[in-house]
């Protein structure tokens, strides 16, 4: 099976993260920018790894926020109203540090989700995904110069939904991924977290095995969890380059914030995605009649 770049995007679903604990939406702004999350995957099992390095808009000065997300996706043989049923799961890891001695390293909230995706014809696709980032306790802590600053910062569960739209024609690829997260209170500290809305956009051109284009994305808190909370938002632009090696696809994005509200500083980020198909059913063999 030839796996194209638009199918690579469908693997992501909602697999990556940033975190209410890290003063941002649970799903990182821009991680899906330029990805087709609407087109159904061919039936099979896929592995996707997403690695990201960059600065941290939640902390001033020299800092870093890095993550790695190994994802397993199953595109089932089942359909509902011609929509392909797909399931995804991931166990991410995270590393965040700042010049003032604050850091966090370890596992991030595991993610599970189900998705239904339709090919509408004439280059258009749409999908709906629902899932949850599962709260975990006893595995993480914020540290400040070696002292525990906060325990169990990831001990909250987020219900995550995504509506994805895509169009492909004449080598052009237009994508829009709209995400809404309902974030629960932290079960250890009982701290309330804001819900969020993210929008990741992309316009790219396929040239042979290459894909190049621009990405744009933004995020905003939805409502205040308490009266004195300062709602946060941001918008960023960047570029995308990808290459189709055949069964393996890679994509690289580099982006930076243009504007931000109530964050500490603007963020610059690079994301590398690698998609590997693990299994696809064999095509039925033709039956040859012998006389």
UniProtKB/TrEMBL annotation:
Pfam families: Phenol_MetA_deg
Source taxon at top rank: Bacteria
Protein name as it appears in the record: CoxB-like protein
Organism (species): Rhodoblastus sphagnicola
Organism ancestry: Bacteria, Pseudomonadati, Pseudomonadota, Alphaproteobacteria, Hyphomicrobiales
């Amino acid at each position: 099976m030839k796996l194209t770049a638009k199918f690579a995007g469908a693997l992501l679903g909602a697999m990556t993260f940033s975190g209410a604990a890290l003063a941002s939406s649970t799903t990182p702004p821009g991680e899906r920018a330029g990805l087709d999350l609407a087109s159904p995957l061919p039936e099979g099992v896929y592995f996707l790894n997403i690695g990201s390095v960059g600065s941290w808009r939640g902390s001033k000065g020299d800092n870093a926020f890095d993550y790695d997300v190994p994802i397993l996706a199953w595109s089932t043989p089942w359909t509902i109203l011609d929509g392909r049923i797909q399931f995804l799961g991931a166990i991410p890891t995270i590393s965040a540090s700042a010049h003032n001695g604050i850091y966090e390293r370890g596992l991030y909230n595991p993610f599970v989700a189900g998705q239904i995706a339709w090919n509408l014809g004439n280059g258009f696709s749409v999908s709906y995904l629902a899932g949850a980032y599962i709260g975990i306790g006893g595995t993480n802590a914020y540290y400040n110069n070696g002292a525990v600053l906060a325990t169990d910062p990831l001990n909250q569960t987020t219900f995550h939904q995504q509506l994805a739209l895509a169009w492909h024609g004449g080598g052009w690829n237009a994508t829009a991924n709209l995400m809404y997260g309902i974030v629960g209170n932290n079960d250890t500290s009982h701290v309330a977290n804001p819900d969020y809305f993210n929008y990741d956009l992309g316009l790219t051109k396929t040239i042979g095995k290459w894909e190049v284009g621009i990405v744009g994305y933004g995020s905003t808190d939805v409502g205040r969890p308490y009266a004195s909370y300062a709602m946060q938002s941001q918008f960023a632009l960047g570029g995308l380059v990808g290459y189709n090696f055949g069964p393996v696809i890679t994509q690289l994005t580099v982006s930076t914030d243009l504007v931000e509200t109530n964050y500490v500083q603007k963020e610059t980020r690079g994301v590398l995605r690698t998609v590997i198909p693990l299994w696809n059913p064999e095509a039925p063999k033709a039956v040859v009649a012998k006389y």
